[in-house]
Amino acid sequence: MIDVEKIRQEFPILFQEVNDEPLVYLDNAATTQKPKAVLNKLTYYYEHDNANVHRGVHTLAERATKEYEAAREKLRKLINAGETAEVLFTRGTTTGLNWIAKSYGDLAVNAGDEIVISYMEHHSNIIPWQQLAACKGATLKYIDITPEGYLDMASAKEQITDKTKIVSIAHVSNVLGVINPVKELAVLAHEHGAVMVIDGAQSVPHMAVDVQELDADFFAFSGHKMCGPTGIGVLYGKRALLEKMEPVEFGGEMIDFVNLYDSTWKELPWKFEAGTPNIGGAIALGAAADYLQEIGLDNIHQHEADIVSYVLPKLLAIDGLTVYGPQDPKDHTGVIAFNLDGLHPHDVATALDMEGVAVRAGHHCAQPLLKYLKVPAAARASFYLYNTKADADRLIEAIMATKEFFQHGAI
Ligand code: 7TS
């Protein structure tokens, strides 16, 4: 069990009023708030240690480099990568997935090959593969979703064949809130000689992840969804694959020797990190990794599961409300997308904001999924470690008030 009231004290942003109501922040799938430990680490770095990394011999440069590499070790530990050489700092999940498509895709995908994703992917896990397929003359294939909102494993077995070179799937859907069986998919991919890419944007912040146990070949996630700053994230890759791959960007930091007409690269992980990295961001992300691990990812997962088992039945009981994804609370993470009959989700989100409740509305960067579900858009509430059952109650009350307002014109 976590002490949620104590945790909330660590997040100054939560203590404010929005439209004269105490803020209830339920847009955590888009980005999460930052605890003092992370904010303080960022400020401390800029106040005491700011310098460029891997270049200077002066004391500040040494300190900055030491902290930056210490952060890499914290991120390695968070996902249990075998070594820090396999942990690349990126701008976020999107950058990580693009690097794989560009670099590994260039190496491994040829005309006639296949890349397999699913209908529930975020645009960041669709477009890089569309581009790769178009560039190489390869085919992009989609795994179906069952009517109950789960990834259809029978369809996965049909789509993944000996022609498949890459399988890339979200660990947790940012719309359906379902946890996908990525470990089983990795076995399937490997049986056919394909690599398994996991989009961990919505899993790493909320549950214990072990990339070795999952046998992921690549695993990408974002710092800002796990209490860290924006503009920093991680791409994990197995050493054997990263060694074979070309860097995606070229310039300072990533080179060993530069001649007039050719150059050589540094060893892993630096060969992929061209230019001055987001040093402060990486160091603060290290603090976020420590923060989450001190609380315990299993405890965070359990806390969110408790809220979902409390709020999901209440949502499902509201007349005219549809929840997407699994209806069984034990299979639904804290990401809950929904619609109210006859109301546009943007109107719903605006009305909830009037009550101080922040949710997102739109296509959630998953247009193919919404098309598949035959809805133009949805509202989405997403919970995190600092949310309470009282927040869930405020959501329900605000939805009821919204229904009332649109039916009878007064709140
Ligand atoms: N993959 C998934 C599953 C995501 O949910 C997101 C962001 C990304 C990739 C991209 O992450 P980024 O940090 O590189 O932007 N998802 C959302 C969302 O659901 N609402 O806003 C951003």
Automatic annotation (TrEMBL):
Class of the enzyme per the UniProt entry, highest EC level: transferase
Species annotation: Enterococcus larvae
Similarity comment text for this entry: Belongs to the class-V pyridoxal-phosphate-dependent aminotransferase family. Csd subfamily.
UniProt xrefs under Pfam families: Aminotran_5 (PF00266)
Annotated Aminotransferase class V domain residues: 24-395
Cofactor: pyridoxal 5'-phosphate
EC number: 2.8.1.7
Catalysed reaction, written as an equation: (sulfur carrier)-H + L-cysteine = (sulfur carrier)-SH + L-alanine
InterPro entries linked: Aminotrans_V_dom, Cys_dSase_SufS, PyrdxlP-dep_Trfase, PyrdxlP-dep_Trfase_major, PyrdxlP-dep_Trfase_small
The protein, known as: cysteine desulfurase
This protein's UniProt keywords: Pyridoxal phosphate, Transferase
